[in-house]
Design a protein that fits this description.
mainly alpha, 2 domains, two-stranded antiparallel sheet, 9 helices, 76% helix
Length: 250
Amino acid sequence: MRLDLSSKLALVLLLWLCAFLLDWSINLILITLLILVRYLLPGYRPQSARASKSFNKFLFYGGTIVFLFAGINALFLRGGDVVLTIATLDFHEEGLMFGIRTAVRLLLLSISILLFFASTPLRDFIRFLQQKGLPPQLVLVLLLTLHFLDQLPARIHQVFVAQEARGAPVRAGIFSRSQALFSVVSPLVLSSIIESIDRGTALEVRGFLHKPVPMPAAAHEQRSRNLLTAAVILLSVAIIIYSVLRWLLV
């Protein structure tokens, strides 16, 4: 069964609750399941090769961040037994566990959001928000913002190439890059503002601010999607109740 956006958003909410309320070992299992879901479920596969590449890069950087975060906290937060000694540096158990818990929580939050946007076409997400009754002006601002973030890497590359053609040392040392920072940021911001105004005007002319007519789905399909969304929300409520009871009884 194909997941609709209501079910996917409810799942994101569930994962965020799990990240804050459940143990880090459960969160690590959920991260593993999300990585498998990215390959097994068609509804969660990235919509483009660029989105797939970005997701894979994030997994690599995320693992590196978990390793560094755990190591830094184990080095500076002293408590518990010494689990590792390198030269004169002692890595402590309490800091290590704190770093792992925090890094895994942040990784689960990030992967849940990234997987949602990587597997959801922007036009479908905007249409979904419109059909749910969000103010058209708010939806327009969100659309322009997401489009700007999606095009940001390509824009930065274009600005770098243009500045290099003019002789600016944008890829030299740190000092030269700092001097050329304004010459890179200013055209990036100005061009983005101009394009956002033009794109917003074009969308208004095409009737974007008018409420779209919802497209009805089959009765059995709609019922299945509603049941799945309700099940995910009920599971979220159950996790909240379990966490509150555990906090009261401990």
